Each structure stands twice: as C-alpha cells, then as structure tokens.
Amino acid sequence: MKKTTTAIITYDTEEDTYDIKLKNPLSVCWQITTKCNLNCKYCLSSSGVCGEYGLETKDAIYIIKQLGKLGINRLDFTGGEPLIRKDIEQLIKCSKDNNINTIVTTNTTLLNEQNIQALKLADLVQISIDGPEEIHNEQRQNDVFKQTISNIKRLKEEGCKIRLNSFIYNSNKQYIDYLLNLSKELNLFSHLFIIFTPQGRGRNYPEEIIPSEEVEKIKEKIINCRKEEKRNIRLYDYNEYIHSCVLLTPLGDVISQGFYEEDSICVGNIFKQPLEEIFANEIFDHPTHVLHYLQRRAI
Questions:
Q1: pLDDT (0 to 100) of residue 295
Q2: CB 3.0 to 4.6 Å from 80: which of 33, 118, 119, 189, for a disulfide?
Q3: Which residue has the higher pLDDT, 16 or 221?
Q4: Model pTM?
Q5: Contact of 166 with 122, CB cutoff 8 Å
Q6: Domain for residue 101, yes or no?
Q7: For position 72, which CATH number holds?
Q8: Strands 124-128 and 253-256
C-alpha cells in the first residue's frame, strides 16, 4: 500500500539552502508489549517474561485510529515479542483499515497457524539474525538459530515479505559478510543492519560500542554491497539519526530516541495530550528520519 506524506519545503535565497518540515513523523515504532519468551543479551527494551503485556485491545485501537488521522505512513509493531499479543491480527487489520502500512518485528519462535495468518496481512515481517549459529544463540541466550532459519523459509512459502534485521556490535562485526550472504541465500529482498546502541540491557555492555571509524568502514561495505547486488540493504546508526525515531511504549508514552538511553526523551503520553501536539515538539527531527530511506534511492 502506497501512501503520501506531506512535507513543507522552503528555499532560503540568502543561504541557498532548503528547509524541510514535517508536521508528523514518517513512521512510528510501537512496543506493543515488552513481554518476550526470550531474554536477548543486548535487548534495547530489556524485554522478557516479566515485561509489560501492554494496552487493552480497545486502547490500542484508539491509538491506531489517532495515528491514521494524522496520516502516519507506517507502523512497526515491535516489542518484546508481538506474537505474545492475542490481538495482533486485529491490530494489523485496524492499521490497514486506517490506511497505515505495517511491519511486525518478531523472533518467530512462537509461530503457529493462527499468527501466520496475521503476519500474512502485514506489509513486512522483520526477523533478526545476528551472526552464525553460535553467535546468534549467544545473543538470544537460547538455542533458536535453526528454528529461526526454518521459520523464515516457512513464512516465505506462506507469501510473507521478509526483511532480515541484524544488530551489529563489537563481538559480531566480523560477520557482516556472513550475514549478507545469508540474506542473499535466503532470497530476501531487504536487509537492515543496526549499529549497537547502549540502551536497555545493552547498557551493561559499553565495550560493545563500535568505534566511529569502524562504523564508517561498515557503512562503506553496506553501500558497496547495495550497489553490486541492487538489494535494499541499509544501515541504521542511532548516532546519525538522533531524535529522528519516534518510539511508542506499551502504555502510550512517546519517546524521542537518542544514542544513549539517557539521551532519549519522553515527550508526552498519548492519553494525556493530543498526539499532534506531541509530534510538533521541536525535539523531533522528522526530516532526518525520511532521509534514512531516501539514501537507498540516491545511490
């Protein structure tokens, strides 16, 4: 589903520059739960079995309708593990009814016939693999690599569009070529690499922060691979996109994300003030988030 986002572009004749303004973000990343059946070592949301289940269905639907009224382009259902939610299919359907594209980010280990049907309704299913079996299982703190690969193939057979998601940190940065080859072998059109940021449980591992000069080398590798293979291969570096990503928590807080957790700012709560007022806060850098997606077309 294609959807247009309106931007105001102003040319400054004196400075010879263009200024782009968006009233609302391009997309919203929503932790619909922080409950998870896994306990990943570097989880950005510190999710686990004791996490917050999230809002009741009626309140979640209220949020989706508010996002639809504001013309939000895309909604990423993340967590925690979204498949823990019994209403995930209902939430995806509501998003589609409100003209919002949907992504579901899942570890796939709770996959069953019912939620497969829900995932088939989403525009994109995002699944994480962080390295070869030993590395991936260490990060997940569970023996799930083979199951995840099998479930990727199963979802592809069911017609789901899949993007591989890889979290890159000091201990696995040498496996980027392996991961690129893996997504190619799995015939996946899209692969997103996310540079480690010390948030959530990742705060306990500052040694996993990749030096900036090495991040640049990784970025160059990704760009070269994208040129050669003509696949949608991208890299997201929180340092480069500070306060451009809008995060919605399980209970409706709206967060402007920074690199460190201390840099992230709670701007408001959707149940306490109008969402358009929250999104208008000057802390948000909505145009920079758009540029993250434009880069792949400019190369």
A1: 47
A2: 33
A3: 221
A4: 0.89
A5: no
A6: yes
A7: 3.20.20.70
A8: unpaired
